[in-house]
Amino acid sequence: MLSRTANHLYWMSRYVERAEHLARLLDAHYRLSLLPRSPEVLMQGWIATLTSLGMIAHFQSQHGEADPQQAMQYLAFDRTHAGSIMSCLGAARENARAVRGTVPSEVWETLNATYLDARDFRSDAGDIGVRTFLDWVKYRSHLTRGVTVNTMLRDEAFHFASIGTFLERADATTRLLEARWRDPGGAGERLGVDASEWAVLLRALSAFEVYRKVYRESVTPLRVTELLLLNAEMPRSVHRCLYDLLGNLQAVRNSQSAETERMAGELHAQFRYGRLEEMSSVGMPQFLDRVQRRLNTLADRIGADFLVAGYSG
Amino acid sequence: MCAAAYDEMLDTTGGARAHCVRYFSWLRAQPAELLARKRAEADALFHRVGVTFAVYGEEAGTERLIPFDIVPRVIPTEEWQLLAAGLQQRVRALNAFLGDMYHDQDILRAGRIPSELLLCNAQYRPEMQGIDVPGGIYAHIAGIDVVRADGAFYVLEDNLRVPSGVSYMLENRKMMMRLFPELFRHQAIASVEHYPDGLLENLKSVAPQGVVDPVVMLLTPGAHNSAYFEHAFLAQQMGIELVEGQDLFVRDDFLFARTTRGPQRVDVLYRRIDDDFLDPLAFRSDSMLGVPGLLTVYRSGHVTVANAIGTGIADDKSVYPYVPEMIRFYLGEEPLIANVPTWVLRNAADREHVLAHLAELVVKEVHGAGGYGMLIGPAASAAQIEDFRRRIIANPERYIAQPTLALSTSPTFCSQGLAPRHIDLRPFVLSGREITIVPGGLTRVALREGSLVVNSSQGGGTKDTWVLES
Questions:
Q1: Does the beta carbon of A106 lie under 8 angstroms from any beta carbon of chain B?
Q2: Does the beta-carbon distance from A101 to B218 stay under 8 Å?
Q3: ipTM value for the complex
Q4: For domain B341-404, is the CATH number 3.30.1490.270?
């Protein structure tokens, strides 16, 4: 398939996944705001989140010493920067538009409708409004995935779209964990003291019930981290994402992609056979940061091997 | 103006014409609020599906709809048969003319068309001289604009470069079947949905010699082009790649696409980019849309470009008056569909007549398109007329003139309910191993009361076009 088409499909999926991830992240913050926490503690959580997203500097340049309300608005509705849910939905749509001749009509129509309808949500509709929006974004993401999985031929188009999805999801999960570990208000420093923040994280990832099934014990930070990093059956775990990523990479293999595939396999092996204690020996946030870097390298290599227009074999 | 224009659906007493009786009685039985709801539904669906055209510089998601009217234009069987035969004849002659122009130029030597009109024409491409194209076909896809005035059909314009609008023909039909399925159950309305199959077959049939399973791709200027929806739509319906210039490159005198598995050879390029932008090495050097070296590959016969380069010489407005002569010269036949009488203003006698009657006539720029650069005498102010008079005197060869035709009308939904609006028709003629026409076409309607300009850029809308099967 055309490299440019593959590139648009890859980014289309990444943006869909990113919008969903942001919705889940904001949902977690919304839930946290209902816990008995001081505004300062809540804001610390937001700062940790914005830091993990790499958006803290931009946010502070726009809003200075902001409050949680502004952070929520910034990440949900603000279209003046590329990192908000609205901007991601728009970018997903533009990428889909560029390949509407390649994907089934229903895929394009779903992404188009999502963006058109998203513009009708009002950013000033208060807590309930934001909450409704976040639920809706998750629902539309499910819908997009359903349409994609149910209508697309299992050809390269599907594989490149999947590569985008799993790479973005692996990255997103590490960022969520990193933010939680970095948040002094709720995480590392008070291990085991109050696990509400971690329970909230699980709920935002639709993983609370999964956790109970897997562990049958109370929520602890290390167990949550283990579930989200190492569990092979958990659809949003880094291990699972890398497994799926590797499969799709093998399916599109070309004459120059061997090294990329090896690196993906190596990273996957670390999550398949590694131990949490060893991973966290450097400090959990530091470890997660390294994983993100390796994922970035992988993304760059995938771009160079398959997606750039300059590639002509 | 044109109060007494022929109406395609209703006779002069306001009753339905014989072929529309069934539809019109159905229409009259529909409650107004139901029709209003259906119209709103159509708009919402077109937005959702993205049947839109992009307006440059506007924010994403604000693409516009071309207004769609839910009252179809209905063509009876025998009228369509006449039209189809006339269009086939015309396109055959036009292709023969193009082949002649780029080879021996018999028609010029026979003195049937003035040589300087062609050889000095900017649309003439000397690069094409002596090149043999597969099957001798230049205009693989032709959109011929037909109007009815005073009861008779006329060809108003031939579009042989990159004619557009066929996606609206297809989407309008889909929409009508979705909104009003019962209409299709009770009447035999000729199907149009096989157009993409026919187009793909047609494109494959003109592949370079010796290519067994040709790879066809559609070349678009990109997602910001106003016709992008159509490009994506056709590529998808045909199952071919939609490419931009940056996706293609020339190597060893062949055309290739950059793919995830390396270069892929391209045999047929259905291009939706004007000649000028196709190859920066041969034509406009500032073009970012084309493929450097494409012309050389084309001239070697290693890729077929559809439509061929240089077809503009046959649909130029200054050449249009001579199409009936082409039909006589190449086919030895009389034209089945007439041209609109046309004054060629480079001719002194014609010019004198036209300058004396500017207020009654339509004056068109020879190279204008899209309803721009036009004077409609009866609707123009004195100042506009004087402006055109000066322009004609300064550059007479740039203009032609035609009588103001009383274009036929069709009942159309307007703010005040159903009212007659002027329409035209663009059927799409495919030429390859054979010539085929999908029964129907794009009916465009001038939505403003009294307006004769149907172009979407000038506030025109579209209708579904029904050809009844007997």
A1: no
A2: yes
A3: 0.77
A4: yes
